[in-house]
Amino acid sequence: MATQQEQKPKKAKILIVEDESLVALEIKSALEKEGYRVCDVADEFAPAIECVKSCKPDMVLMDIYLNGEVSGIEACKIIKEIYKIPVVFLTAYSDSNTMNEALGCEPDGYLIKPFRRAELLAAVKMCADRREPKEPQDFLQVCEDIYFDRKKQSLIFKDKEIRLTKKEIELLEILINNKGKVVAFNMIDEILWPQREVSEVTRRTLIHRLRLKLGKEALKTLPRTGCILEC
To answer: What is the pLDDT of residues 165-222, one digit of tens each?
Structure first.
């Protein structure tokens, strides 16, 4: 009786953040030929962070100098700190100031342009080997008796379903990824509203709505600082 072939594990899902379109396409082509999944290509912070939230890549290849106001170094700090996703830097600049600033956010790799395809694949493989790609969980425990159902986009509390808005879900996932840690208000603003300035009232209203749904003891705010999921 013939045995079924074992399924090969899926290779890492990768987001490319690169403002030179030809370079980005070359990287995408090289990765896909090796079986990696490129979930998107972005050239600045705003679309990159939207992709991080929607496609949840296993790693990010990040150019240090991007279009827009947020640099690759600042983007790296946010992605690593909030979403715990490894970042490999791509840059044409190798001067000591750039290197020191970039290394300050503890990237998971560093490639100097122009790099060879073999160097790119080696850096990606090394990063992927340290963290095997995982499919996102659909059912997450938020607190002892509160769960988040990604498919239904709702909280489950004692068999009761509490619907969440898109922004409430985005804020909740940030807080879950940083459970027990204070998430600064300015970090929340940059992630949830990357393409526009947002008023304090808008942010405060969002946090208040989520707090009512989670329970006042679960989500706490620190005046002029940030908020924390503590349960």
So the answer is: 999 999 999 999 899 999 999 999 999 998 788 899 999 999 999 999 998 889 999 9
Residues of the chain with CATH 1.10.10.10: 139-229
pLDDT digits (tens, 9 = 90+) for 65-116: 898 889 999 999 999 989 999 999 998 877 788 788 888 888 999 898 899 9
In this structure, are residues 208 and 200 in contact, taking their beta carbons and an 8 Å threshold?
A: no
* Structure tokens belonging to residue 229: 């999921």
**Counting Cβ atoms within 10 Å, is residue 97 exposed (0-12), middle (13-18) or buried (19+)?**
exposed
CB atoms within 10 A of CB 163: 11
Nearest CA to 67 among 14, 24, 18, 16? Answer: 18
CATH 3.40.50.2300 segments of the chain? 13-130
The pTM score is: 0.79
The CATH architecture one would assign to domain 139-229 is Orthogonal Bundle (1.10)
* Mean per-residue pLDDT over the chain, rounded: 89
Quick check: 53 and 60 in contact, CB under 8 A? Answer: no
Higher pLDDT, 21 or 150: 21
Residue 82 structure tokens: 């909030």
Cα→Cα distances 113→66, 151, 213, Å:
15, 41, 48
Task: Please compute the mean of the pLDDT values over residues 138-159 and round it to a whole number.
Answer: 87
Report the top-level CATH class of 13-130: alpha beta
Tell me which residue of 51, 80, 75 sits closest to 64, measured CA to CA: 75
| Count of beta carbons in the 10 Å neighbourhood of residue 208 | 12
